Amino acid sequence: MNQKTQRFATIRKIIRNELISSQEELIARLRECGVEITQSTLSRDLKYMNVAKVPHKEKGYIYVLPNTVQHDANVSSNISDNITSLTFSGNLGVLKTKSGYASAISVPIDNLDSPDILGTIAGDNTVLLILREDANRSHIIESLVRIFPMMSNIL
Amino acid sequence: MNQKTQRFATIRKIIRNELISSQEELIARLRECGVEITQSTLSRDLKYMNVAKVPHKEKGYIYVLPNTVQHDANVSSNISDNITSLTFSGNLGVLKTKSGYASAISVPIDNLDSPDILGTIAGDNTVLLILREDANRSHIIESLVRIFPMMSNIL
DNA sequence: GTTATATTTGTATAAATATGCAACGACCTA
DNA sequence: TAGGTCGTTGCATATTTATACAAATATAAC
């Protein structure tokens, strides 16, 4: 339906360009754009469009479109800020990073020359750690936190 | 203080590994992990941790950790014509593609944000899927076929 | 056209989430 | 010790969001 498509476009435009904290607020903005809509329909629209609600420093919460990568306002020079998670599976460790940082992150890990980390493979946002079969995960984490202190925030 | 850090870690672990649709559900899981918490505190914790709530096909809505904020998993169809095989080995999946397509193929897989697929690494014609330890291979296949319909031809 | 079937919407309400406020405890300093 | 500040929490509740249901509207088949 074209009516609906048009409405979606307007919703997207507003969310992309403004900080919207609630559906009521968005309804008001839509009205200003000539779109009448009830809260229930909007709720369904947002769900259909995969719009997420995320915490935001100033506004409390805001809606964000899918594919919109959240960029921190303050870019940190600390490389370990770019590590987002560490999980283990069998004899592998999977270290996720912000896009593009995997290679940079993997270098100091290689340089650890830890007997527990046999090697690493870096993609774009993932560093694969191949671990010794009987490696102790706690020891791995300790080693990593030693070179990436900020990592303790995400563990 | 340390109590709180510990609680955060548990919350993160649960959110990373499971599909949680509501705070009440998360409270129940936390209790199973020995963490007693009220809804109001949890709400504040989630806000503090920048945890977002995003629409999800099966569960309605799920909580996701920052930097994994939801992307479009609906993908143009014919790209999946370039997948040639899928095999499993231990907790790894190996997806072979025509030369040069691995990166393109891996993007929508990353965007699935499946708790079963911890991460992907794309080479030139191979995508390595790192799976959760107890991941169900059938479920993985289902997820992949959902975004790459043509894959069903080669399975 | 008519009828059947599916999609979209609003209303009313349920469900889920955020938050003001008071209370508690940790940690100061005098 | 008493008194002060600060961070954390639970309770109660306000706010916000999702959804069951029925009505309206579109879509398709005849």
Give a structural overview.
2 copies of one chain form a homodimer. The radius of gyration of chain A is 22 Å and the shape is elongated. Mean pLDDT of chain A is 77; it is low at 68-77. A 4-stranded antiparallel sheet of chain A has the order 3-4-6-5, covered by helices on one side. Chain A is built from 5 helices and 6 strands. Chain A has helices at 2-17, 23-32, 39-48, 102-112, 137-147, and strands at 52-56, 60-64, 83-89, 92-97, 117-122, 126-131. The termini of chain A are far apart. Helices cover 37% and strands 23% of the residues of chain A. The longest helix of chain A is centred in the first third of the chain and has 16 residues, at 2-17. In chain A, a hairpin with a 3-residue loop joins strand 5 (117-122) and strand 6. At the A-B interface, helix 3, strand 1, strand 2, strand 3 and strand 4 of A face helix 1, helix 3, strand 1, strand 2 and strand 5 of B. Chain B binds a DNA duplex (30 and 30 nucleotides) through helix 3.
Give the structural class of chain A.
Answer: alpha+beta
- Specify which chain pair forms the largest interface: A-B, 34 and 39 residues
> What oligomeric state do the depicted chains represent?
homodimer
Number of separate strands of chain A: 6
Strand arrangement within the widest β-sheet of chain A reads: 3-4-6-5
What percentage of the residues of chain A does DSSP assign to strands (E)? 15-25%
Helical percentage of chain A: 25-40%
* Number of DSSP helical runs of chain A: 5
Q: What kind of sheet is the major sheet of chain A?
A: 4 strands, antiparallel
Rounded mean pLDDT score of chain A: 77
Estimate the global geometry of chain A from the Cα principal axes: elongated
Specify Rg of chain A, calculated over alpha carbons: 22 Å
Residue runs with pLDDT of under 50 for 5 or more positions of chain A: 68-77
Measured distance between first and last alpha carbons of chain A? 46 Å
Give the helices and strands of chain A as they follow along the chain: HHHEEEEHEEH
